[in-house]
Amino acid sequence: MIKSYFTIAWRNLLRGKFFTAINVFGLACGISVSLLMVIHLRHELSYDTIWQDHELIYRLGTKAWAKNAPLLATSIKSHFPEMENTGRFFLNGSSIIRGNDKVIPTQNNFLVDQATLSVFRFPFVYGNSEKALLDPKSIVITRDVSEKLFGKGDPTGKVIEVDDHQEYTITGVMENIPLNSHLKIETLVSIEGADVAANTGRSWKAVDIYVRFKSHEDAAAMAGKLRDYEYEYFEGARTKEELDQNDDHFEFHQVASIHLYSHREKEMGRNSDVQYIYLFSALAIFIILIASINFVNLFTARSVRRMKEIGVKKVMGASRAQLFRQFLSETFLLTAISTSVAVLLGLVMLPFYNELSGLALVPADLLNSINLLLLGGITIFIALLAGFYPSLVISRYKITESLSRYASVGTVSFFKKLLVTFQFVISCVVILLTVVVSRQMNYIQDRDIGMSKEGVVTVKLYGQLVKDMNDHPGVLKDRLLRNSNIIGVGMTARTIGERVGYDGFVLTGSPEEDRQDVRHLRAADEGYVTALGLTLLEGRNFLSGDTTTGAFIINEEAAKRYAKGGNIDELIGKSLGHDPQKGEGKIVGIVKDFNFVSLHSAIEPMVIAYGHNWIDNLLVRVADTKDLSSTVEFIRSEAAAFTPGSFIVFNFLDDQLDQLYETENKMFAIFNLFSILSVIIAILGLVALSAHSVEARVKEIGIRKVLGATVADILVILSGEYMRLLVIASVLSIPLAWYVANLWLTTFAFKVGLAWWMFVLPCVALVLFTLLILVAQSLKPATADPVDSLRWE
Fold first, then answer.
1. In this structure, which long-range contacts are made by residues 566-571, counting pairs with CB atoms below 8 Å and at least 24 apart in sequence?
2. Residue 711: what are its φ and ψ, rounded to 5°?
3. What is the pLDDT of residues 328-341, one digit of tens each?
4. What is the pLDDT of residues 488-521, one digit of tens each?
5. With contact defined as beta carbons under 8 Å apart, do 428 and 770 qualify?
6. Rounded to an integer, what distance in angstroms lies between the CA atom of residue 455 and that of residue 472?
């Protein structure tokens, strides 16, 4: 019996090849795309759940800061026995590592406690994790670093040189940190004995402090005691009233929540945002809904066309239950085929999706047990949704009603209209949001950020080259400027896009309450302003003689704060420093505000200090970007001549700025692609429904033409119903899209304004495009000979 159900179902599918193909393709596309997005979302939600008992690991930060004082880690551990371990991470900057006659650059190098290894319980490939960092001259490296230097095998016991002057013995090799962790680690060195560990300042926010609790109950109890401990910790340094007024109290941040929910100052890296989880979850649901609605609509419409078949089967003795099972078997067969095609499409799309999203998904991620269960659930749900309604309604008709070609199907028609309207509301919202996202990303690219980002090569310096540049700052610069294509060279401690720390500065002679917390770029030279193309509003640029006298250049925002409503030019020549009684240098210039971080953040007051200490970046401005390869090679050769064996890494400033919007760029690329796909699926469904409608009304068209209807009249009749639904969907989608767009734009300090045409014009374009398709499809039956139409059965 079951076999006969599926045999009949297969024959029915083959009988309507066009409609079957659209149903299978549309549903398969929807399932495959949604499945890929679900895998992406699961990856985002899995951040830092990889650690053993991750629920017991917390970061000890504050309301506004991710980092805290080094002293806090040891103080709080001795105060609260419910803490199993505390560990500190101090970013030690970028380095070069030499070993086995090879040299590699590393970016994620940290000073940590031995206890840090116990907090996270990093899996070790070689070495003993319980003793790996007890010796200050020991180092733990990742498997990737180990294989780059030594290939396969155990490198423990071997000596490597870091930054051309420090030797460490490898005591451990840990597994590479997975992509789904906010920790990015390449090397770990003991923090004991380092200056940062000896610092006793209570407010210096320099290290990431992580805590492992013994139990969930201990973590909850400790959170309730944290405020009282904070008052005790700062006793003698800051009063309770000052702490409450500042409102930057200690907080525990559950490690698995950091990636999506933490956007504090001095994060280890740029985190994602839970808003994108909501957005992509909605998009995945929307796409599968659009595909499912198409499937349900078309299957229901085709089922209604089989009224005579149902009548004949009832005459032959078929029961209502048998007819019910027959329809369900057809929907299960069709959805099973669609799901199989969806899996194949997903496997084909996987490399492209990886490139688009920056992930490293493999076929096993697509075909794991959870996803297979999800696919099975989707198949059953859609099959029941598409098969239950026609099975229930059509099988209940009496034999005489079923044999009548014109049996009442008004309820099905209303259901179909409702679903068509709903799916086009979704499609319109997705299109409108894509327009807004596109406008914002173009705004980011085109906005004047106060400097000239094109034609700037950023050069990262390492090892002995850094020391030589600081000791003899002008030598390499003069050599580089001999190249006619190089028109400016600047030195700096931080490149654009890197977060610059805060410091409190006050004009000499001003009261302490006039102190301003400003961004402090600790070192830049006289070439910094020229290399970046900054606009000097008042005063002058740095001079080489400023080394002995001390000099600062401030931005407009800082000048406005210090001027207090007065003329900013009056600040030129005034002394500035940390101590209100003693200036550390004079304000020599004021530059136009420039975005030194992403447009997510408002421009903050900034003080740029003249100096050569801590400088490990060159900014090289070139005249002609067409010949960059030879210019880059020239810089490399001159650096090697200046410091033999030197190692440098090149980048381009505009690329660095683009990386600040990596999350948005990936989101936009995925959103743009899938919004187009959702519209294609919706229109395909509408085309299939329209084709079915035309097929069902061939004789009606013939009668209308005999009675005098024109081709235009017929086109209006055939397409007007769907056009009304599309117009209604467009009107409903505009306020919803406006709300979501406004919500997303709040994450940017600088954003594009929303205008009515950004919402109305795309809807009009979609309506006109759909009208064109419907008219083209209806043209053939509208112009056909009515004699042929009336003969059709």
1. 568/537, 568/538, 569/538, 569/539, 571/507, 571/538
2. -60, -40
3. 777 787 788 888 88
4. 999 998 888 777 888 889 998 888 888 888 999 9
5. no
6. 26
